[in-house]
Amino acid sequence: xxxxxxxxxxxxxxxxxxxxxxxxxxxxxxxxxxxxxxxxxxxxxxxxxxxxxxxxxxxxxxxxxxxxxxxxxxxxxxxxxxxxxxxxxxxxxxxxxxxxxxxxxxxxxxxxxxxxxxxxxxxxxxxxxxxxxxxxxxxxxxxxxxxxxxxxxxxxxxxxxxxxxxxxxxxxxxxxxxxxxxxxxxxxxxxxxxxxxxxxxxxxxxxxxxxxxxxxxxxxxxxxxxxxxxxxxxxxxxxxxxxxxxxxxxxxxxxxxxxxxxxxxxxxxxxxxxxxxxxxxxxxxxxxxxxxxxxxxxxxxxxxxxxxxxxxxxxxxxxxxxxxxxxxxxxxxxxxxxxxxxxxxxxxxxxxxxxxxxxxxxxxxxxxxxxxxxxxxxxxxxxxxxxxxxxxxxxxxxxxxxxxxxxxxxxxxxxxxxxxxxxxxxxxxxxxxxxxxxxxxxxxxxxxxxxxxxxxxxxxxxxxxxxxxxxxxxxxxxxxxxxxxxxxxxxxxxxxxxxxxxxxxxxxxxxxxxxxxxxxxxxxxxxxxxxxxxxxxxxxxxxxxxxxxxxxxxxxxxxxxxxxxxxxxxxxxxxxxxxxxxxxxxxxxxxxxxxxxxxxxxxxxxxxxxxxxxxxxxxxxxxxxxxxxxxxxxxxxxxxxxxxxxxxxxxxxxxxxxxxxxxxxxxxxxxxxxxxxxxxxxxxxxxxxxxxxxxxxxxxxxx
Length: 703
What we know:
The chain is an alpha+beta fold. It has helices spanning 4-7, 44-48, 53-70, 80-85, 119-144, 149-161, 273-282, 304-312, 321-325, 333-336, 344-356, 378-396, 471-485, 489-497, 576-583, 595-602, 615-625, 674-677, and strands at residues 40-41, 189-192, 203-206, 258-260, 263-265, 358-359, 363-364, 421-426, 437-439, 452-453, 515-524, 534-540, 554-561, 588-593, 626-632, 637-638, 647-656, 666-672. It has a domain at 509-703: Hemocyanin, Chain: A, domain 2 (Sandwich).
């Protein structure tokens, strides 16, 4: 492939493809994609801390290439700035592609795939172009070095077998044993090992993962505000999102932008990784053991991200592509798929919230708003992990591709098809910019895009004698990996059930392997605040006894409406996809599991409102103590009256381990608890036509 600089001279389309393969890769797919020898996308912490010489070279090339990529001027089509801008601002078309269909006159050319079945597949070629451009920079860097032919061969092999790393946010990080940012995002310098390094200990290098600043500089040499580009480059100006000061920022922030008086601080880009880590960690602090218990420090706590991932892969938790892939709400959800509110897009939304920062009082960040999120280098590793989870779900449910809930009143006819174009991603060099576009069908098999994930490489026992994949054994191994890697509600329940030192008399409803499971299902309007991002926060009241929880309420989860693009109007301006969804009253859905946080409080001797998990006790407790808040991006609390289409319901079902204890649990038999929400703003009412006490019998799965 030509160098990035040479490629910019072409007026034709940029054909997105995977990194070229070395000849040792084989393709032996029967149903599940399988390609022995395929280079892997691996966990960032493993790549950054590797002692293997080849991995050290790959880490070095990744850091150097990312720095080079970020420095390209904004007017270059293949600059970091323009690639990031595809996701939102500066709202310009890219690579000659038409904006999505049905664009109103004068609407902005946003390429938005949120709250849509194409959410995961649209981001797949998006990750691919980012990965391919980094590889291209690696090759240019190697070419520029004064090294021997044998050294050049080694470095080229390192580049050709490198793939984009991922941040597994549902796992504790190795450097601090906490759910948090990767260590590489907490250091302003990192160690690299280029050919000119003095010894094997490497050399310190300014860390390009720390953030991103405008490559366009003013007369003083400092980065310009991104809404104040130089003369001749004004079309790349970034706008504000309502009152959020994105145009005034010269750099990307994580928990860095704060309001002071009538102005803002942190506009130059602040990486407050400690605040980010505290936010991510605090959302995952579930430990059944008191601080003085001998097993407290060794307990593998099932954080809510880990629990959410585990549930998403539980038996029949998501039965269709539609319920897995997108936050889009379906009419059938209420009657048939009560568990299917836990989607990949919903979990992804919450990670954007936790890692970016959403309050101008405690710190706002770019990751928390759709139009500017991709400017943060963290975005790419986050979405690489989203694509990994997509690949895992596909491997387990290959035949569920593009399946939707039944046609008893859903919105299947309004949804994109797998053969529809994914603007603006072209699949040919110098092709027709309006026709030669990627589709979801073309992006279905990741091995055809020349990558694999480390945890999807099969164990030896899952390989048949003829070298093909034993697919049933492979899927069972993958489910075991999920169960052992992502602690869940089952992990917590069994930690209490089987430890007599913790067990209260009559703590559970009954002495058996199953448990009563509690979830909050939410139907919400993503466009209630004219496209502004907001969160629905769920809280339990503090202790009335003066115990350890009396000083503060207990936030037990949240639903983040990750948005920020204003919906288009007939007069023009805004996002066409968002405008179409708003005009057609398309709603969204999400789920917050709450069994573990209730159990945490019930196990706290200083917390008096609840002392057991018996169903009547839990229902009465939730009725008296559960409440919610609506908080828009920036930190302002909004009235529930601003969200008339929101419906919040509480459900009790059954969680039960599968016969093989190494597999994720199964869940069934959910019923709404009307008394908990009846009379509360946006809460499910007893006389609701669909889910009220007199509604027809729901068709939920039973054991």
